[in-house]
Here is the input.
Amino acid sequence: MHSWCTAWNEAKAASPLAHSQKETPQRWQAFFEAISDCYHAMWGDQGGLGPRIADLLFSEGIAYPSCRVLDAGSGPGTVSIPLAERGARITALDYSEGMLRALSQRAESQGVKGIESLCTPFFDFKPDEAFDLVLGCFFPAALSPEGLKHMESLSSGHCALVLSSFREQIPFCRALWREIMGYEPPSGDFHLIYAFGFLFAGKKAPNIKHLSWAYTFMSPLEETQAFFSRYFEIFDRKGPSVQSDIARVLKGFVKDGLVTCAADVKIALLWWRAYQH
Here is the structure.
């Protein structure tokens, strides 16, 4: 297991995304607060991402009616709301008050109950009672040996990760990254390899399932431009020239006033039984 820990941490250190999440977490938090109201429509839905994940969790028996689920890094409820709609009892944990406010508003507008929201950092969360399922969906804090161990400490049943299984799959996002950052967008798919290897070495018998589907991204140009202007500020890319570059790239994807782009979503669900307390 030691070699997997070392290799995973080395891969994270070489990743621009993982490096920025570690070195400038305040920028990421500011980003999530700023875009919380539009995150689900802009990035969270992706052709029914949440319902597809919820259906898979239920079909595999990892989630079930009345089970207690911790959705760690819940964001605006992308998965929390579909799970609650299917009868699970959800604790939505996030460090962004804006994201949790957006979750509450979406749940109320859809008449969904059974979700408790907590604004607490992941590693500070130590509940009195363990959960039947601890879930992390594209959640950076869970993507490390320490993150997986903390997930297990919170579960009396299963733990599950939703991860990207391929490189950036949306053409205009690839084009933006190349233009603004000056190189190909980094991939986070190495997390799947290292998480599986770490768990397997620890005799956890992890399971994995892949999902893929096609969808069409559509969003007003102005909103899309504002979203990505905020995003690239995380990497200290800002100012009039950056704004101009973002606008120029996005205009190449505009149709009838909307940024429109066909894309393929390819994700992996990794799950395993946690240590029994």
In short: The mean pLDDT is 93. The beta strands are 68-72, 89-94, 115-119, 131-137, 155-164, 207-220, 254-255, 258-273. The first strand starts at residue 68 and ends at 72.
